[in-house]
Amino acid sequence: xxxxxxxxxxxxxxxxxxxxxxxxxxxxxxxxxxxxxxxxxxxxxxxxxxxxxxxxxxxxxxxxxxxxxxxxxxxxxxxxxxxxxxxxxxxxxxxxxxxxxxxxxxxxxxxxxxxxxxxxxxxxxxxxxxxxxxxxxxxxxxxxxxxxxxxxxxxxxxxxxxxxxxxxxxxxxxxxxxxxxxxxxxxxxxxxxxxxxxxxxxxxxxxxxxxxxxxxxxxxxxxxxxxxxxxxxxxxxxxxxxxxxxx
Length: 247
Fold this sequence. Notes:
By secondary structure, the protein is mainly alpha-helical. It contains 6 helices and 2 strands. Among the domains are: about 5-55, no CATH class; about 165-230, no CATH class. It is extended, with a radius of gyration of 36 Å. The model is unreliable at about 5-20 (pLDDT under 50).
């Protein structure tokens, strides 16, 4: 046997004015039955009003709105603008870079069949930008040893201190740029080095390079921090914030 509460909920869902009905279903019922439409008119208007409510037109918090259905804030006096560049907007085109190769394309024969064309001159330059083939620079330091007959011991060459890490400054700086500035994870760096640079690296080797970068930039960060603490006016963020409804 149904409880009174469940029976009430079932009746409200089946009733045209119940909670299970939306404004669209009420409108469909109103079209089917004019007499019922007069009774559902106030209910339909109330639901339609709720659908038009946003955080800036009601007491609803902004967090209750979907990020894909937020109302676009436009002034009533300004006309609706089309998306994209506006008339009079300065465009930004890809500028021509210093060329490393050039291919001159002569015009084909005319459509009439004439091949004796005169006044040949360039009219457009099409630029193609690509990465060069990545070939890593690998240097092998062969350490030699020699026997000293006077001391009766081996004298061995030592690795230069600037090459003791095993990875050069450009590769180390690249790892620091990708991990520090762009937030790339260690395993993503490992995959990038193996697939793009064709250099298999362990996670420990990547971490050692990042530690070298941190050690190199720490004095500069400390100098910036000292300068900021001694400045009379520090940097002001350009992002506006509202304080008591005042910008």
